[in-house]
UniProtKB/TrEMBL annotation, chain A:
Residue stretches making up the ABC transporter domain: 15-256
Domain of life: Bacteria
Keyword Phosphoprotein: no
One Gene Ontology CC term in the entry: plasma membrane
Pfam families: ABC_tran, NIL
Name listed for the protein in its UniProt record: Cell division ATP-binding protein FtsE
MF-aspect GO terms: ATP binding; ATP hydrolysis activity
Organism for this UniProt entry: Sinorhizobium glycinis
InterPro entries according to UniProt: AAA+_ATPase (IPR003593), ABC_transporter-like_ATP-bd (IPR003439), ABC_transporter-like_CS (IPR017871), ACT-like_dom_sf (IPR045865), MetN_ABC (IPR041701), MetN_ABC_transporter-like (IPR050086), NIL_domain (IPR018449), P-loop_NTPase (IPR027417)
Biological process, per Gene Ontology: amino acid transport
From TrEMBL, chain B:
Keywords: Cell membrane, Membrane, Transmembrane, Transmembrane helix, Transport
Membrane-spanning parts: 20-38, 58-79, 91-108, 145-168, 188-207
Name of the featured protein: DL-methionine transporter permease subunit
Domain called ABC transmembrane type-1: residue spans: 13-203
Entry-linked InterPro entries: AA_ABC_Transporter_Permease, MetI-like, MetI-like_sf
Membrane disposition: Multi-pass membrane protein
Gene3D superfamilies per the UniProt record, alphabetical: MetI-like
PROSITE patterns, alphabetized: ABC_TM1 (PS50928)
Protein's cellular compartments: Cell membrane
Length: 359, 221
Protein backbone atom coordinates (compact mmCIF):
# COMPACT_ATOMS: atom_id res chain seq x y z
CA UNK A 1 0.00 0.00 0.00
CA UNK A 2 1.43 3.36 -0.91
CA UNK A 3 0.31 6.18 1.28
CA UNK A 4 0.39 9.79 0.15
CA UNK A 5 2.65 11.70 2.55
CA UNK A 6 -0.05 14.23 3.29
CA UNK A 7 -2.26 11.59 4.87
CA UNK A 8 0.32 10.57 7.48
CA UNK A 9 -0.02 12.41 10.74
CA UNK A 10 2.60 12.42 13.45
CA UNK A 11 0.37 11.37 16.31
CA UNK A 12 1.11 8.04 17.86
CA UNK A 13 -2.47 6.93 18.42
CA UNK A 14 -3.72 3.63 17.01
CA UNK A 15 -6.96 5.38 16.09
CA UNK A 16 -7.72 9.09 16.10
CA UNK A 17 -11.11 10.67 15.47
CA UNK A 18 -10.75 14.31 14.64
CA UNK A 19 -13.93 16.36 14.68
CA UNK A 20 -15.91 13.56 13.08
CA UNK A 21 -19.58 13.98 12.22
CA UNK A 22 -21.90 11.59 10.46
CA UNK A 23 -25.21 12.59 8.97
CA UNK A 24 -27.56 10.14 7.36
CA UNK A 25 -29.57 11.94 4.69
CA UNK A 26 -33.32 11.51 4.58
CA UNK A 27 -34.42 8.63 2.37
CA UNK A 28 -37.92 7.36 1.72
CA UNK A 29 -39.80 7.16 5.00
CA UNK A 30 -36.91 8.11 7.28
CA UNK A 31 -35.89 11.67 8.06
CA UNK A 32 -32.30 12.96 8.02
CA UNK A 33 -30.37 12.05 11.15
CA UNK A 34 -27.13 13.15 12.77
CA UNK A 35 -25.64 9.99 14.25
CA UNK A 36 -22.30 11.53 15.29
CA UNK A 37 -21.62 15.14 16.09
CA UNK A 38 -18.06 16.48 16.12
CA UNK A 39 -16.45 13.51 17.83
CA UNK A 40 -12.79 13.78 18.76
CA UNK A 41 -11.14 10.85 20.46
CA UNK A 42 -7.88 8.97 20.42
CA UNK A 43 -7.27 5.32 21.10
CA UNK A 44 -3.83 4.72 22.58
CA UNK A 45 -1.71 2.01 20.99
CA UNK A 46 -1.81 -1.22 22.97
CA UNK A 47 -4.78 -0.15 25.08
CA UNK A 48 -8.18 -1.73 25.46
CA UNK A 49 -10.41 1.27 24.97
CA UNK A 50 -14.12 1.06 25.57
CA UNK A 51 -16.88 3.18 24.11
CA UNK A 52 -20.09 2.94 26.04
CA UNK A 53 -23.47 4.41 25.36
CA UNK A 54 -27.13 3.63 25.21
CA UNK A 55 -28.80 1.99 22.23
CA UNK A 56 -28.85 4.37 19.28
CA UNK A 57 -26.09 6.59 20.72
CA UNK A 58 -23.98 6.09 17.59
CA UNK A 59 -21.52 3.46 18.78
CA UNK A 60 -21.74 1.16 15.78
CA UNK A 61 -21.58 4.11 13.41
CA UNK A 62 -18.42 5.28 15.18
CA UNK A 63 -16.63 1.94 15.04
CA UNK A 64 -17.61 1.37 11.40
CA UNK A 65 -15.80 4.57 10.48
CA UNK A 66 -12.54 3.03 11.65
CA UNK A 67 -12.35 0.42 8.89
CA UNK A 68 -14.19 2.54 6.36
CA UNK A 69 -17.44 0.55 6.33
CA UNK A 70 -18.98 3.99 6.80
CA UNK A 71 -17.61 7.33 5.62
CA UNK A 72 -17.61 10.42 7.83
CA UNK A 73 -19.67 13.38 6.62
CA UNK A 74 -16.97 15.65 7.98
CA UNK A 75 -13.82 15.33 10.04
CA UNK A 76 -11.05 12.76 9.82
CA UNK A 77 -10.51 9.26 11.09
CA UNK A 78 -6.90 8.11 11.21
CA UNK A 79 -5.72 4.58 11.78
CA UNK A 80 -2.02 4.38 12.56
CA UNK A 81 -1.72 7.88 11.16
CA UNK A 82 -3.40 7.01 7.85
CA UNK A 83 -6.43 9.07 6.89
CA UNK A 84 -9.10 6.44 6.19
CA UNK A 85 -11.20 8.86 4.14
CA UNK A 86 -8.33 9.49 1.70
CA UNK A 87 -7.97 5.81 0.76
CA UNK A 88 -9.34 4.43 -2.52
CA UNK A 89 -11.10 1.04 -2.68
CA UNK A 90 -7.83 -0.87 -2.92
CA UNK A 91 -6.29 1.09 -0.06
CA UNK A 92 -9.38 0.47 2.04
CA UNK A 93 -9.17 -3.27 1.42
CA UNK A 94 -5.55 -3.28 2.53
CA UNK A 95 -6.46 -1.36 5.64
CA UNK A 96 -9.28 -3.78 6.43
CA UNK A 97 -6.91 -6.70 6.07
CA UNK A 98 -4.88 -5.18 8.91
CA UNK A 99 -7.84 -4.43 11.17
CA UNK A 100 -9.80 -7.29 12.70
CA UNK A 101 -13.47 -6.97 13.57
CA UNK A 102 -15.83 -9.04 15.70
CA UNK A 103 -19.60 -8.72 15.74
CA UNK A 104 -22.53 -9.04 18.10
CA UNK A 105 -24.16 -11.76 16.01
CA UNK A 106 -20.83 -13.45 15.24
CA UNK A 107 -21.42 -13.38 11.46
CA UNK A 108 -19.74 -16.71 10.85
CA UNK A 109 -20.47 -18.58 7.62
CA UNK A 110 -22.80 -21.51 8.16
CA UNK A 111 -21.43 -23.19 5.04
CA UNK A 112 -17.89 -23.33 6.37
CA UNK A 113 -16.34 -25.37 9.14
CA UNK A 114 -14.61 -23.75 12.09
CA UNK A 115 -11.34 -24.12 10.22
CA UNK A 116 -12.83 -22.76 6.99
CA UNK A 117 -14.23 -19.71 8.74
CA UNK A 118 -10.90 -18.78 10.28
CA UNK A 119 -9.20 -19.42 6.94
CA UNK A 120 -11.56 -17.09 5.05
CA UNK A 121 -9.74 -13.77 5.60
CA UNK A 122 -6.49 -15.49 4.63
CA UNK A 123 -8.01 -16.85 1.41
CA UNK A 124 -9.28 -13.35 0.72
CA UNK A 125 -5.80 -11.92 1.11
CA UNK A 126 -4.50 -14.54 -1.32
CA UNK A 127 -2.49 -16.75 1.02
CA UNK A 128 -1.74 -20.28 -0.20
CA UNK A 129 -3.24 -23.43 1.33
CA UNK A 130 -0.22 -24.57 3.27
CA UNK A 131 0.48 -21.18 4.82
CA UNK A 132 -3.20 -20.91 5.78
CA UNK A 133 -3.05 -24.29 7.48
CA UNK A 134 0.02 -23.21 9.46
CA UNK A 135 -1.64 -19.94 10.49
CA UNK A 136 -5.06 -21.30 11.46
CA UNK A 137 -4.00 -24.18 13.74
CA UNK A 138 -2.33 -22.07 16.46
CA UNK A 139 -5.24 -19.62 16.35
CA UNK A 140 -7.71 -22.41 17.05
CA UNK A 141 -5.50 -23.41 19.97
CA UNK A 142 -5.47 -19.84 21.23
CA UNK A 143 -9.27 -19.56 21.29
CA UNK A 144 -9.75 -23.11 22.56
CA UNK A 145 -11.43 -24.60 19.49
CA UNK A 146 -8.67 -26.95 18.31
CA UNK A 147 -10.84 -30.02 18.83
CA UNK A 148 -13.73 -28.48 16.87
CA UNK A 149 -11.90 -27.53 13.71
CA UNK A 150 -14.03 -29.71 11.42
CA UNK A 151 -17.38 -28.73 12.97
CA UNK A 152 -19.95 -26.44 11.42
CA UNK A 153 -21.14 -23.35 13.35
CA UNK A 154 -24.64 -24.84 13.75
CA UNK A 155 -23.07 -27.49 15.96
CA UNK A 156 -21.52 -24.93 18.32
CA UNK A 157 -22.71 -22.71 21.18
CA UNK A 158 -22.86 -18.92 20.97
CA UNK A 159 -19.67 -18.52 22.95
CA UNK A 160 -17.88 -20.97 20.65
CA UNK A 161 -19.16 -19.10 17.58
CA UNK A 162 -17.75 -15.88 18.99
CA UNK A 163 -14.44 -17.67 19.49
CA UNK A 164 -14.49 -18.45 15.77
CA UNK A 165 -15.18 -14.76 15.20
CA UNK A 166 -12.20 -13.79 17.33
CA UNK A 167 -9.83 -16.30 15.73
CA UNK A 168 -11.00 -15.12 12.31
CA UNK A 169 -10.42 -11.48 13.26
CA UNK A 170 -6.89 -12.32 14.37
CA UNK A 171 -6.03 -14.45 11.34
CA UNK A 172 -4.38 -11.68 9.33
CA UNK A 173 -2.33 -10.66 12.39
CA UNK A 174 -3.90 -7.22 12.72
CA UNK A 175 -2.61 -4.50 14.98
CA UNK A 176 -6.09 -3.34 15.82
CA UNK A 177 -9.17 -5.29 16.85
CA UNK A 178 -12.64 -3.74 16.64
CA UNK A 179 -15.37 -5.28 18.73
CA UNK A 180 -18.98 -4.22 18.26
CA UNK A 181 -21.03 -5.60 21.17
CA UNK A 182 -19.15 -8.89 20.92
CA UNK A 183 -20.62 -10.21 24.15
CA UNK A 184 -24.13 -8.77 24.05
CA UNK A 185 -25.68 -11.99 22.80
CA UNK A 186 -23.96 -14.13 25.42
CA UNK A 187 -24.79 -15.08 29.00
CA UNK A 188 -22.72 -13.51 31.85
CA UNK A 189 -20.45 -16.50 32.31
CA UNK A 190 -19.64 -16.85 28.61
CA UNK A 191 -19.21 -13.07 28.46
CA UNK A 192 -16.57 -13.33 31.18
CA UNK A 193 -14.66 -16.04 29.32
CA UNK A 194 -14.74 -14.07 26.05
CA UNK A 195 -13.56 -10.94 27.86
CA UNK A 196 -10.75 -12.90 29.49
CA UNK A 197 -9.74 -14.06 26.03
CA UNK A 198 -9.70 -10.49 24.70
CA UNK A 199 -7.59 -9.41 27.65
CA UNK A 200 -5.13 -12.21 27.06
CA UNK A 201 -4.87 -11.40 23.35
CA UNK A 202 -4.26 -7.76 24.19
CA UNK A 203 -1.50 -8.70 26.63
CA UNK A 204 0.12 -11.51 24.60
CA UNK A 205 -0.13 -10.10 21.09
CA UNK A 206 0.08 -6.46 22.12
CA UNK A 207 -2.73 -5.46 19.83
CA UNK A 208 -4.99 -2.49 20.42
CA UNK A 209 -8.63 -3.26 21.13
CA UNK A 210 -11.44 -0.80 20.50
CA UNK A 211 -14.51 -2.20 22.13
CA UNK A 212 -18.07 -1.00 21.96
CA UNK A 213 -20.71 -1.95 24.45
CA UNK A 214 -23.75 -0.78 26.33
CA UNK A 215 -22.78 -2.78 29.41
CA UNK A 216 -20.74 -1.13 32.17
CA UNK A 217 -19.72 -4.59 33.40
CA UNK A 218 -17.80 -5.14 30.16
CA UNK A 219 -16.04 -1.78 30.35
CA UNK A 220 -15.16 -2.39 33.96
CA UNK A 221 -13.81 -5.87 33.35
CA UNK A 222 -11.39 -5.22 30.49
CA UNK A 223 -10.82 -1.63 29.47
CA UNK A 224 -8.09 0.74 30.59
CA UNK A 225 -9.70 3.78 28.97
CA UNK A 226 -13.28 4.61 28.26
CA UNK A 227 -15.36 7.19 26.42
CA UNK A 228 -19.04 7.70 27.09
CA UNK A 229 -21.14 8.53 24.05
CA UNK A 230 -24.60 10.02 24.21
CA UNK A 231 -26.76 11.12 21.27
CA UNK A 232 -23.77 11.15 18.95
CA UNK A 233 -21.47 13.11 21.24
CA UNK A 234 -18.64 12.08 23.54
CA UNK A 235 -19.75 13.36 26.94
CA UNK A 236 -17.02 11.98 29.14
CA UNK A 237 -13.74 10.16 28.71
CA UNK A 238 -10.65 9.19 30.63
CA UNK A 239 -9.04 6.28 32.40
CA UNK A 240 -11.71 3.74 33.20
CA UNK A 241 -10.83 3.87 36.88
CA UNK A 242 -11.29 7.63 37.08
CA UNK A 243 -14.52 7.64 35.11
CA UNK A 244 -15.93 4.88 37.29
CA UNK A 245 -14.91 6.36 40.58
CA UNK A 246 -15.78 9.97 39.73
CA UNK A 247 -18.45 9.91 37.03
CA UNK A 248 -19.31 13.48 36.04
CA UNK A 249 -21.90 13.33 33.30
CA UNK A 250 -25.47 12.30 34.05
CA UNK A 251 -25.36 9.62 31.35
CA UNK A 252 -22.28 8.04 32.92
CA UNK A 253 -23.91 8.12 36.32
CA UNK A 254 -27.05 6.55 34.92
CA UNK A 255 -25.08 3.81 33.18
CA UNK A 256 -23.14 3.19 36.39
CA UNK A 257 -26.19 2.99 38.59
CA UNK A 258 -26.98 -0.38 37.08
CA UNK A 259 -23.84 -1.89 38.55
CA UNK A 260 -24.24 -4.10 41.63
CA UNK A 261 -23.03 -2.47 44.86
CA UNK A 262 -23.71 1.06 43.70
CA UNK A 263 -27.20 1.18 45.15
CA UNK A 264 -28.32 1.34 48.78
CA UNK A 265 -30.72 -1.32 49.98
CA UNK A 266 -34.26 -0.05 49.39
CA UNK A 267 -35.23 -0.09 53.10
CA UNK A 268 -32.27 2.09 54.09
CA UNK A 269 -32.66 4.48 51.18
CA UNK A 270 -36.29 5.13 52.16
CA UNK A 271 -35.41 5.85 55.80
CA UNK A 272 -32.67 8.38 55.04
CA UNK A 273 -33.12 11.84 56.58
CA UNK A 274 -31.22 14.96 55.58
CA UNK A 275 -30.48 16.09 59.18
CA UNK A 276 -29.63 14.31 62.39
CA UNK A 277 -31.88 14.07 65.45
CA UNK A 278 -30.35 13.11 68.82
CA UNK A 279 -29.47 9.41 68.89
CA UNK A 280 -29.45 9.07 65.09
CA UNK A 281 -26.74 7.34 63.12
CA UNK A 282 -24.90 8.85 60.17
CA UNK A 283 -24.71 6.92 56.86
CA UNK A 284 -21.45 7.39 55.00
CA UNK A 285 -20.15 6.02 51.72
CA UNK A 286 -16.43 5.24 51.84
CA UNK A 287 -14.52 4.85 48.61
CA UNK A 288 -11.05 3.44 48.72
CA UNK A 289 -8.55 2.65 46.02
CA UNK A 290 -5.32 0.82 45.50
CA UNK A 291 -3.56 -0.43 48.59
CA UNK A 292 -6.31 0.81 50.88
CA UNK A 293 -8.64 -1.73 49.33
CA UNK A 294 -6.48 -4.51 50.65
CA UNK A 295 -6.18 -3.33 54.30
CA UNK A 296 -8.48 -4.52 57.12
CA UNK A 297 -10.13 -1.09 57.24
CA UNK A 298 -13.28 -2.01 59.07
CA UNK A 299 -11.65 -3.54 62.10
CA UNK A 300 -9.28 -0.55 62.26
CA UNK A 301 -12.23 1.83 61.99
CA UNK A 302 -14.04 0.11 64.85
CA UNK A 303 -10.90 0.22 66.98
CA UNK A 304 -10.21 3.87 66.38
CA UNK A 305 -13.69 5.23 66.99
CA UNK A 306 -14.43 2.76 69.74
CA UNK A 307 -18.07 2.56 68.71
CA UNK A 308 -20.41 0.26 66.92
CA UNK A 309 -20.26 0.37 63.06
CA UNK A 310 -22.83 -1.20 60.75
CA UNK A 311 -21.95 -2.18 57.24
CA UNK A 312 -24.95 -1.46 55.01
CA UNK A 313 -23.66 -2.17 51.53
CA UNK A 314 -20.36 -2.74 49.87
CA UNK A 315 -18.33 -4.10 47.03
CA UNK A 316 -14.69 -4.75 46.53
CA UNK A 317 -13.86 -4.92 42.88
CA UNK A 318 -11.31 -4.27 40.22
CA UNK A 319 -11.70 -1.53 37.65
CA UNK A 320 -9.26 -1.16 34.82
CA UNK A 321 -6.95 -3.50 36.71
CA UNK A 322 -6.96 -1.46 39.94
CA UNK A 323 -8.56 -2.66 43.15
CA UNK A 324 -11.46 -0.49 44.21
CA UNK A 325 -13.84 -0.65 47.11
CA UNK A 326 -17.06 1.06 47.98
CA UNK A 327 -18.57 0.65 51.43
CA UNK A 328 -21.61 2.20 53.03
CA UNK A 329 -21.37 2.27 56.82
CA UNK A 330 -23.40 3.78 59.66
CA UNK A 331 -22.20 4.89 63.10
CA UNK A 332 -23.33 7.22 65.87
CA UNK A 333 -23.96 10.81 64.75
CA UNK A 334 -22.77 12.29 68.03
CA UNK A 335 -19.97 14.87 67.59
CA UNK A 336 -17.37 12.80 69.41
CA UNK A 337 -17.77 9.68 67.23
CA UNK A 338 -18.01 11.75 64.05
CA UNK A 339 -14.80 13.54 64.84
CA UNK A 340 -12.90 10.32 65.56
CA UNK A 341 -14.21 8.76 62.36
CA UNK A 342 -13.26 11.75 60.25
CA UNK A 343 -9.75 11.71 61.63
CA UNK A 344 -9.47 8.03 60.77
CA UNK A 345 -10.71 8.64 57.22
CA UNK A 346 -8.27 11.43 56.51
CA UNK A 347 -5.36 9.48 57.99
CA UNK A 348 -6.16 6.61 55.64
CA UNK A 349 -6.87 8.68 52.55
CA UNK A 350 -10.47 7.55 52.16
CA UNK A 351 -12.96 9.49 50.10
CA UNK A 352 -16.17 9.89 52.04
CA UNK A 353 -19.64 11.09 51.24
CA UNK A 354 -22.37 11.58 53.84
CA UNK A 355 -25.53 10.09 52.39
CA UNK A 356 -27.86 11.05 55.28
CA UNK A 357 -29.04 9.97 58.72
CA UNK A 358 -31.13 7.11 60.03
CA UNK A 359 -32.85 6.61 63.33
CA UNK B 1 -49.41 -52.60 -26.06
CA UNK B 2 -47.30 -53.12 -29.16
CA UNK B 3 -43.49 -53.02 -29.03
CA UNK B 4 -43.69 -50.21 -31.59
CA UNK B 5 -45.61 -48.06 -29.17
CA UNK B 6 -43.18 -48.84 -26.35
CA UNK B 7 -40.36 -47.81 -28.64
CA UNK B 8 -42.18 -44.56 -29.38
CA UNK B 9 -42.64 -43.86 -25.68
CA UNK B 10 -38.98 -44.61 -25.05
CA UNK B 11 -37.89 -42.24 -27.78
CA UNK B 12 -40.27 -39.52 -26.61
CA UNK B 13 -38.90 -39.83 -23.07
CA UNK B 14 -35.36 -39.43 -24.34
CA UNK B 15 -36.43 -36.39 -26.41
CA UNK B 16 -37.97 -34.81 -23.34
CA UNK B 17 -34.87 -35.51 -21.27
CA UNK B 18 -32.68 -34.01 -23.97
CA UNK B 19 -34.79 -30.84 -24.24
CA UNK B 20 -34.92 -30.43 -20.46
CA UNK B 21 -31.22 -31.11 -20.03
CA UNK B 22 -30.02 -28.71 -22.72
CA UNK B 23 -32.52 -25.93 -22.00
CA UNK B 24 -31.94 -26.36 -18.26
CA UNK B 25 -28.17 -26.27 -18.62
CA UNK B 26 -27.98 -23.23 -20.89
CA UNK B 27 -30.83 -21.46 -19.11
CA UNK B 28 -29.23 -21.92 -15.70
CA UNK B 29 -25.84 -20.89 -17.01
CA UNK B 30 -27.26 -17.58 -18.24
CA UNK B 31 -29.87 -17.18 -15.49
CA UNK B 32 -27.37 -17.57 -12.64
CA UNK B 33 -25.28 -14.45 -13.36
CA UNK B 34 -28.43 -12.46 -14.13
CA UNK B 35 -29.91 -13.54 -10.80
CA UNK B 36 -26.71 -12.63 -8.97
CA UNK B 37 -26.69 -9.27 -10.70
CA UNK B 38 -30.33 -8.61 -9.77
CA UNK B 39 -29.54 -9.39 -6.12
CA UNK B 40 -26.39 -7.29 -5.87
CA UNK B 41 -26.83 -4.23 -8.09
CA UNK B 42 -29.35 -2.19 -6.11
CA UNK B 43 -28.47 1.15 -4.58
CA UNK B 44 -25.68 0.80 -2.03
CA UNK B 45 -25.12 -2.88 -2.80
CA UNK B 46 -22.02 -4.71 -4.05
CA UNK B 47 -22.21 -3.66 -7.70
CA UNK B 48 -24.42 -0.59 -7.50
CA UNK B 49 -26.14 0.03 -10.86
CA UNK B 50 -29.73 0.81 -9.92
CA UNK B 51 -30.81 1.78 -13.42
CA UNK B 52 -29.45 -1.31 -15.14
CA UNK B 53 -30.91 -3.30 -12.26
CA UNK B 54 -34.35 -1.85 -12.86
CA UNK B 55 -34.14 -2.36 -16.62
CA UNK B 56 -33.04 -5.98 -16.18
CA UNK B 57 -35.85 -6.56 -13.72
CA UNK B 58 -38.32 -5.16 -16.24
CA UNK B 59 -37.16 -7.47 -19.03
CA UNK B 60 -37.22 -10.44 -16.68
CA UNK B 61 -40.76 -9.62 -15.60
CA UNK B 62 -41.92 -9.13 -19.17
CA UNK B 63 -40.56 -12.51 -20.22
CA UNK B 64 -42.02 -14.21 -17.20
CA UNK B 65 -45.46 -12.78 -17.66
CA UNK B 66 -45.70 -13.84 -21.30
CA UNK B 67 -47.63 -17.13 -21.43
CA UNK B 68 -45.23 -19.81 -22.55
CA UNK B 69 -47.26 -20.91 -25.55
CA UNK B 70 -47.29 -17.33 -26.86
CA UNK B 71 -43.55 -17.03 -26.27
CA UNK B 72 -43.01 -20.15 -28.37
CA UNK B 73 -44.91 -18.62 -31.31
CA UNK B 74 -43.57 -15.09 -30.86
CA UNK B 75 -39.92 -16.06 -31.12
CA UNK B 76 -40.26 -18.40 -34.11
CA UNK B 77 -38.08 -16.13 -36.32
CA UNK B 78 -35.36 -16.16 -33.69
CA UNK B 79 -35.68 -19.92 -33.28
CA UNK B 80 -35.31 -20.39 -37.02
CA UNK B 81 -32.27 -18.13 -37.00
CA UNK B 82 -30.58 -20.19 -34.30
CA UNK B 83 -31.54 -23.74 -35.28
CA UNK B 84 -32.58 -23.39 -38.92
CA UNK B 85 -36.01 -24.87 -38.21
CA UNK B 86 -39.12 -24.02 -36.26
CA UNK B 87 -40.39 -27.52 -35.50
CA UNK B 88 -38.98 -30.54 -33.73
CA UNK B 89 -37.04 -31.11 -30.55
CA UNK B 90 -34.11 -28.96 -31.56
CA UNK B 91 -36.34 -25.98 -32.26
CA UNK B 92 -38.22 -26.48 -28.98
CA UNK B 93 -35.04 -26.05 -27.01
CA UNK B 94 -34.84 -22.34 -27.92
CA UNK B 95 -38.11 -21.13 -26.31
CA UNK B 96 -37.55 -23.50 -23.39
CA UNK B 97 -34.17 -21.90 -22.75
CA UNK B 98 -35.57 -18.38 -23.12
CA UNK B 99 -38.30 -19.19 -20.59
CA UNK B 100 -35.85 -20.79 -18.18
CA UNK B 101 -33.51 -17.81 -17.94
CA UNK B 102 -35.82 -15.30 -16.18
CA UNK B 103 -37.51 -18.01 -14.12
CA UNK B 104 -34.22 -19.26 -12.71
CA UNK B 105 -32.79 -15.72 -12.41
CA UNK B 106 -35.62 -14.65 -10.07
CA UNK B 107 -35.18 -17.75 -7.92
CA UNK B 108 -31.43 -17.12 -7.76
CA UNK B 109 -32.05 -13.51 -6.81
CA UNK B 110 -34.30 -14.57 -3.92
CA UNK B 111 -31.78 -17.18 -2.75
CA UNK B 112 -28.92 -14.67 -2.76
CA UNK B 113 -30.96 -11.96 -1.06
CA UNK B 114 -31.73 -14.44 1.68
CA UNK B 115 -28.07 -14.61 2.74
CA UNK B 116 -27.55 -12.86 6.09
CA UNK B 117 -26.42 -9.26 5.45
CA UNK B 118 -24.10 -9.56 8.45
CA UNK B 119 -21.98 -12.01 6.46
CA UNK B 120 -21.49 -9.49 3.66
CA UNK B 121 -20.53 -6.93 6.28
CA UNK B 122 -18.04 -9.35 7.84
CA UNK B 123 -16.48 -10.13 4.47
CA UNK B 124 -16.21 -6.43 3.65
CA UNK B 125 -14.50 -5.90 7.00
CA UNK B 126 -11.98 -8.59 6.00
CA UNK B 127 -11.10 -6.63 2.89
CA UNK B 128 -12.90 -8.89 0.40
CA UNK B 129 -13.50 -7.64 -3.13
CA UNK B 130 -17.10 -7.70 -4.39
CA UNK B 131 -16.25 -10.74 -6.55
CA UNK B 132 -14.78 -12.57 -3.55
CA UNK B 133 -17.95 -11.80 -1.63
CA UNK B 134 -20.04 -13.30 -4.45
CA UNK B 135 -18.03 -16.49 -4.71
CA UNK B 136 -16.85 -17.10 -1.17
CA UNK B 137 -19.88 -15.84 0.73
CA UNK B 138 -23.06 -15.44 -1.33
CA UNK B 139 -22.86 -18.51 -3.57
CA UNK B 140 -21.43 -20.68 -0.81
CA UNK B 141 -24.08 -19.69 1.72
CA UNK B 142 -26.93 -19.87 -0.81
CA UNK B 143 -25.93 -23.28 -2.14
CA UNK B 144 -28.82 -25.23 -0.58
CA UNK B 145 -31.34 -22.64 -1.78
CA UNK B 146 -29.75 -22.56 -5.24
CA UNK B 147 -30.01 -26.33 -5.45
CA UNK B 148 -33.71 -26.13 -4.67
CA UNK B 149 -34.09 -23.31 -7.21
CA UNK B 150 -32.51 -25.47 -9.90
CA UNK B 151 -34.74 -28.37 -8.92
CA UNK B 152 -37.83 -26.23 -9.20
CA UNK B 153 -36.65 -24.91 -12.56
CA UNK B 154 -36.15 -28.40 -13.96
CA UNK B 155 -39.55 -29.51 -12.71
CA UNK B 156 -41.20 -26.55 -14.47
CA UNK B 157 -39.14 -27.27 -17.56
CA UNK B 158 -40.54 -30.78 -17.70
CA UNK B 159 -44.01 -29.24 -17.71
CA UNK B 160 -43.10 -26.67 -20.38
CA UNK B 161 -41.46 -29.33 -22.51
CA UNK B 162 -44.75 -31.21 -22.59
CA UNK B 163 -46.41 -28.02 -23.79
CA UNK B 164 -44.08 -27.55 -26.76
CA UNK B 165 -45.45 -30.89 -27.89
CA UNK B 166 -48.56 -28.99 -28.89
CA UNK B 167 -46.58 -27.09 -31.50
CA UNK B 168 -44.71 -30.04 -32.86
CA UNK B 169 -41.83 -29.95 -30.44
CA UNK B 170 -41.46 -33.68 -29.97
CA UNK B 171 -41.12 -35.47 -26.67
CA UNK B 172 -43.69 -36.88 -24.27
CA UNK B 173 -46.19 -34.03 -24.64
CA UNK B 174 -46.12 -34.43 -28.41
CA UNK B 175 -46.73 -38.16 -28.08
CA UNK B 176 -49.56 -37.66 -25.64
CA UNK B 177 -51.31 -35.24 -27.97
CA UNK B 178 -50.79 -37.10 -31.21
CA UNK B 179 -51.59 -40.61 -29.98
CA UNK B 180 -53.43 -40.13 -26.73
CA UNK B 181 -55.65 -37.28 -27.87
CA UNK B 182 -55.85 -37.17 -31.67
CA UNK B 183 -55.89 -40.97 -32.20
CA UNK B 184 -57.79 -41.47 -28.98
CA UNK B 185 -55.48 -43.96 -27.31
CA UNK B 186 -56.10 -43.38 -23.57
CA UNK B 187 -53.52 -46.00 -22.58
CA UNK B 188 -50.79 -43.98 -24.33
CA UNK B 189 -52.01 -40.84 -22.60
CA UNK B 190 -51.90 -42.65 -19.26
CA UNK B 191 -48.36 -43.89 -19.79
CA UNK B 192 -47.21 -40.41 -20.84
CA UNK B 193 -48.69 -38.95 -17.68
CA UNK B 194 -47.14 -41.66 -15.52
CA UNK B 195 -43.71 -41.20 -17.08
CA UNK B 196 -43.96 -37.43 -16.51
CA UNK B 197 -44.96 -37.93 -12.88
CA UNK B 198 -42.09 -40.33 -12.31
CA UNK B 199 -39.62 -37.90 -13.91
CA UNK B 200 -40.79 -35.02 -11.73
CA UNK B 201 -40.66 -37.20 -8.61
CA UNK B 202 -37.12 -38.33 -9.38
CA UNK B 203 -35.87 -34.81 -10.02
CA UNK B 204 -37.57 -33.42 -6.94
CA UNK B 205 -36.31 -36.04 -4.54
CA UNK B 206 -32.78 -35.92 -5.93
CA UNK B 207 -32.80 -32.11 -5.59
CA UNK B 208 -34.16 -32.25 -2.05
CA UNK B 209 -31.57 -34.78 -1.03
CA UNK B 210 -28.73 -32.75 -2.51
CA UNK B 211 -29.97 -29.52 -0.92
CA UNK B 212 -30.16 -31.22 2.45
CA UNK B 213 -26.62 -32.47 2.06
CA UNK B 214 -25.40 -28.93 1.31
CA UNK B 215 -27.31 -27.39 4.18
CA UNK B 216 -25.07 -27.01 7.22
CA UNK B 217 -27.40 -24.65 9.05
CA UNK B 218 -29.06 -27.24 11.23
CA UNK B 219 -27.60 -29.78 13.58
CA UNK B 220 -27.53 -33.30 12.28
CA UNK B 221 -27.63 -36.34 14.46
N1 LIG C 1 -27.68 3.73 7.42
C1 LIG C 1 -28.37 4.53 8.26
N2 LIG C 1 -29.31 5.38 7.80
C2 LIG C 1 -30.00 6.18 8.64
N3 LIG C 1 -29.83 6.22 9.97
C3 LIG C 1 -28.91 5.39 10.50
C4 LIG C 1 -28.13 4.49 9.68
N4 LIG C 1 -27.31 3.80 10.48
C5 LIG C 1 -27.56 4.22 11.74
N5 LIG C 1 -28.51 5.17 11.76
C6 LIG C 1 -29.03 5.87 12.94
O1 LIG C 1 -27.95 6.38 13.68
C7 LIG C 1 -28.18 6.21 15.08
C8 LIG C 1 -27.03 5.51 15.70
O2 LIG C 1 -26.99 4.18 15.23
P1 LIG C 1 -25.91 3.13 15.75
O3 LIG C 1 -26.18 1.86 15.06
O4 LIG C 1 -24.56 3.74 15.61
O5 LIG C 1 -26.30 3.04 17.29
P2 LIG C 1 -25.64 2.15 18.42
O6 LIG C 1 -25.13 3.07 19.45
O7 LIG C 1 -24.71 1.17 17.83
O8 LIG C 1 -26.91 1.41 19.00
P3 LIG C 1 -27.08 -0.12 19.48
O9 LIG C 1 -26.51 -0.20 20.86
O10 LIG C 1 -28.56 -0.31 19.49
O11 LIG C 1 -26.38 -1.00 18.49
C9 LIG C 1 -29.50 5.47 15.22
O12 LIG C 1 -30.50 6.38 15.57
C10 LIG C 1 -29.75 4.91 13.85
O13 LIG C 1 -31.12 4.88 13.58
MG1 LIG D 1 -24.73 -0.96 17.51
Amino acid sequence: MTIPASTIARDDAAVAFDGVSKHFPASGESVAFTALNNVSLTVARGSITGIIGRSGAGKSTLIRLVNGLEKPSSGKVRVDGVDVGALDEGGLRNLRRSVGMIFQHFNVLSSRTVFGNVALPLEISGMDRRAIEARVRPLLDLVGLADKHGRYPAELSGGQKQRIGIARALATEPKLLLSDEATSALDPETTQSILELLKRINAELGLTVLLITHEMEVVKAVTSDVAVIDKGEIVERGHTFDVFTHPKHATTQALLSGLPGSKLPEAIARGLKPAAAPGDRVVVRLTFFGAAAERPLISQLIQSIGAEVNIIAGTIDEIGGKPYGSLVVAYGADPETVEKAERFFSENGLVTEVLGYVA
Amino acid sequence: MSPDLLLLIGKATLDTLRMVAIAGFIGALIGLPIGIFLATSGKGELFPAPNVNRATGLIVNATRSTPFIILVVAIIPFTRLVTGTSIGTKAAIVPLTIATIPFFARLVEAAIRDVDKGLIEAARAMGATPMQIVFKVLLAEARPALTLALTMTIVSLIGYSAMVGAVGGGGLGDLGIRYGYQRFMPDVMLIVVIVLIVLVQLVQSAGDRLARRFDKRSRKT
